[in-house]
Amino acid sequence: MKQKRAYRYRIYPTDEQKHILARTFGCARFVYNWALRLRTDAYYERQERIGYHELSSRLTHLKQQDDHIWLNEVSCVPPQQALRHLEKAFKNFFEGRAEYPKFHCRHGEQSAEYTTSAFKWDGTSLNLAKMDAPLDIVWSRPLPKGAKPTTVTVTKDTANRYFVSILVEEDIKPLPVVNKQVGLDLGLKSMVITSDGEHVGNPRYFRKDEKKLAQAQRRLAKKKKGSKNRAKARLKVAKAHAKIADRRRDYQHKLSTRIIRENQVVCIESLQVKNMVKNHSLAKAINDVGWSEFARQLEYKAGWYGRTLVKIDKWYPSSKRCHSCRHVLDSLSLDERFWLCPECKTFHDRDINAAKNVLAVGLTVSACGEAVRPGRAKALSGRTR
Ligand SMILES: [Zn+2]
Q1: Which residues contact 227 (CB under 8 A, 6 or more apart)?
Q2: Which residues are part of the catalytic machinery?
């Protein structure tokens, strides 16, 4: 079965390529924002919905106007793709998966998407439309042999680094079936706790980078607005952010791949469930370790390798339920890391017990094909778990 997979590499464009890219990013961003404004105004003023095709023909018209002739100086594909992205953003909004689309800002990450008509791939080098030399790509890992890229996206992050993401269709072979299942819970001291009792990913790993970031931010705050030093300080902050993001992404990928490789069934709680715990520090920690990104990786990797990811989307008392005798405590405060079950006298590590419950509930869900009943959760609606 063919699966889509993106390969991302660092690139070093020449000055001329940087110039072309800057204009392409600008046009794509302009078209996105222009279309977003049109759609928003049409809806507020006349309750009218303007779809992709209508916007596309208006764009053709716009490009013929004297004051927008500059839109023709770049490849026509990235602006067109920007319209498609907007269409998708609206679809996600209408279907309740995302917030209302926002305007793209020239200070944020910039990107331009090229489809097959706008790039050339000869098996070793990649040429983008309007450029006369191939991109200088750092091949940190090879593209699969005979890969036919379908989409190429160039991005420039806030630390002024350039990347290319190459989307290919690939035969990903499912991994051999293993007889192992695991439940994962999110911890405060470790990123993930498994039902096997393993603590993985200490967020403290990032603490040094975070200190550097805080320092850069303090320096930025002292600089005069509009000064050259302020611009330099801002770049330093962006670089510190980028470094943390890189390390985290790297870490999450290694961890999600390993968990998917080792287990046939992986059970987790959905973020909606996690967010039901109204506790600021926990909410911050959830945010910090990027649980939703981690869950997303588990999901698509499970799809690639023939594994099952079970997402539990109903709340149940995972922390204060004893996994061996099913006794549920009346309350368990967040600072209690260990507890003794009054019924069966089992001594529990709070997080490992929770992960074991996630596994148990997850297996029930996948066996019945339906969501779990909250059970006693209703009666014990105090959200301390
Ligand atoms: Zn017990």
Answers
A1: none
A2: 185, 269, 351
Tokens at 14, concatenated: 């020449």
Give the CA dihedral 181, 248, 312, 100, nearest 10 degrees.
-150
Give residue 281's pLDDT. 58
Question: Do 174 and 184 touch, CB atoms closer than 8 A?
Answer: no
What is the C-alpha separation between 27 and 64, in angstroms, rounded?
A: 15
What is the CA(241)–ligand 1 centre distance, in A?
45
Cα gap 46→54, rounded to integer Å: 16
For residue 9, which amino acid is it?
Y
Pairing of β 149-156 and β 162-171: antiparallel
What separation, in Å, do the N-terminal and C-terminal C-alpha atoms of the chain show?
Answer: 42
| Distance of alpha carbon 120 from alpha carbon 126, whole angstroms | 6
Three-state SS annotation for 155-205 = EECCCCCEEEEEEEEEECCCCCCCCCEEEEEECCCCCEEECCCCEECCHHH
Residue 380: per-residue pLDDT: 29
CA of 357 to the centre of ligand 1 (A): 12
Distance 197 CA to ligand 1 centre (A): 17
**Which letter does DSSP use for residue 328 in this model?**
B
Q: Indicate the pTM of the whole model.
A: 0.78
- The candidate with the shortest Cα–Cα distance to 14, out of 163, 131, 164, 165, is 131
Local structure of 307: helix, strand or coil: coil
283's CB contacts (< 8 A; 6+ apart) are: 275, 277
What is the per-residue pLDDT for 270? 74
Question: What is the 328 CA–ligand 1 centroid distance (Å)?
Answer: 8
Residues of the chain with pLDDT under 50: 369-385
How confident is the model over 159-190, as pLDDT tens digits? 999 999 999 998 888 999 999 999 998 766 67
